[in-house]
Specification:
Length: 116
């Protein structure tokens, strides 16, 4: 498997696992964002470094602007931009986290759902 295929598998695994955890265990994400909410400005740094790292890895190995691969490149680019914005314009990152903190967890027929 070459490096391009490897990064595609890396992205697929990460998006699948994180997406599945959002669906199956949304409470852990609520707990995570409540933890971030309690950390003042440090929450912005934590919330920026995660997508910055993911996006940087993707762009380093999958900088392709044709075919299906462009979707992975665009995803990586969006993550780098998100990290850049959150680290350089603190108010944007803090407002975004505040909106997430306002969401509530609702238990409905055995499913935990995030709700406003």
């Amino acid at each position: 498997m070459d490096s391009i295929q490897s990064i595609q598998v890396f992205v697929a695994i990460n998006l699948f696992v994180v997406g599945l955890s959002h669906f199956i265990r949304p409470k852990i994400w609520v707990d995570f964002f409540e933890f971030l909410h309690s950390k003042n400005n440090a929450r912005n740094i934590i919330n920026a470094l995660i997508p910055l790292a993911m996006g940087s890895i993707i762009l380093a190995f999958n900088f392709i602007w044709k075919g299906f691969e462009v979707l992975i490149t665009l995803y990586g680019l969006s993550q780098v931009i998100k990290g850049l914005i959150y680290l350089t314009f603190l108010s944007i990152g803090i407002k975004t986290l505040e909106k997430l903190y306002q969401k509530r967890l609702v238990h409905l027929n055995g499913l935990d759902l995030l709700w406003h």
